[in-house]
Amino acid sequence: MEATIKISSVNRKDSSLFTCVAHNAYGRDDTNFQIVVQEPPDRPPAVDVTNKGSRSLTLTWAAPYSGNSLITKYIIEHKTVKEPWSLAKITNVDTTDTVYTIQGLLPHTTYHVRVKAENAIGSGDFSEPITLVTEGEAPNGPPKDVRAKATSSRSIQVTWKPPAKEDILSPIDGYYVGYKSRLGDQFAYKTLETSHGGLLECEITDLSKNTKYRVIVQAFNSKGAGPPSEETQ
């Protein structure tokens, strides 16, 4: 004789030790059996960034409820704030570690990051996305179209354009304008602090008469100065 019991709707709270009892006119018998309800993992809690650079970040999270099945991997998605999730980069972390370093990011860029866990039953939900901005870097290229023009016997006006867009790795705070006589050994510098879109020109005064000067310009930001432009006379 065979008997079957069917539980049509269960949840994780139904995991328990059950006892089946049979009895008739001659006596009774019982047996115990364990029911374990398995499901995909919960979403990882406490996702956080513990170390952030200009091109990488270290992500940590707490292990979620496993769904009564061993977590086999974590899936990390990251994207820039302007991209849809369909274009997110996917990283499979085939380990039970709850820390991972994402490489190959762009400086001074806003990213969204989220994590989910997977077990033999399936994938859980993603964590709530976190938003972060990577660190910047000093400019990677020199200012362009640097020009110097004498405005009097003792002054020069210097004009230039910002570095190429791809070389601006953090907002530019200003420029160093260096100048020296043709026979001079070291540049003297003037500092021009400028907001984005400000007029890029500088007048150098109190120069020696009848003297040729060489001029260079460097962009700088909170991370340092970029390379100088080529010398201009």
TrEMBL record:
UniProt xrefs under Pfam families: fn3
PROSITE patterns with a match to the protein in the record: FN3
Keywords, alphabetical: Repeat
Record InterPro entries: FN3_dom (IPR003961), FN3_sf (IPR036116), Ig-like_dom_sf (IPR036179), Ig-like_fold (IPR013783), Striated_Muscle_Regulatory (IPR050964)
Coiled coil (residue ranges): none
Occurrences of domain Fibronectin type-III (ranges): 40-137, 142-233
UniProt xrefs under SUPFAM superfamilies: Fibronectin type III, Immunoglobulin
Name the UniProt record assigns to this protein: Down syndrome cell adhesion molecule-like protein 1
